[in-house]
Amino acid sequence: MTKKKRETFSVTKAVKANAREHVGQPKASRVVADKPAATARGAKHKEKLEELADGLE
């Protein structure tokens, strides 16, 4: 039978586990996309410099 490999100590995992004990598990969140969908025609091309300058005026 082979020996089981020992897990190396990770400070990050220890701190997160400690925080979960005291505060609790964080709620799941959903990422909200700010950019238009990739299938939209305008999303494929960047705005031209002239169009950006017109928006400032």
Structure description:
The protein has 57 residues and is mostly helical. 35% of the residues lie in helices and 0% in strands. The protein contains two helices and no strands. The chain has helices spanning 11-22, 49-56. The longest helix has 12 residues, at 11-22. It is elongated and about 70 Å long. The protein starts with 10 loop residues before the first helix and ends with a helix. The relative contact order is 0.07.
Shape: elongated
Number of strands: 0
Query: What is the string of helix and strand elements?
Result: HH
Largest sheet properties: none
- Overall mean pLDDT stands at 78
Helix content: 25-40%
Share in β-strands: under 5%
Please tally the helical runs, counting DSSP H or I stretches of 4 or more residues.
2
Beginning-to-end CA distance, first to last residue = 76 Å
Radius of gyration: 24 Å
Q: Give the uncertain stretches in residue-range form.
A: none
User: Structural class per helix/strand content?
Assistant: mainly alpha
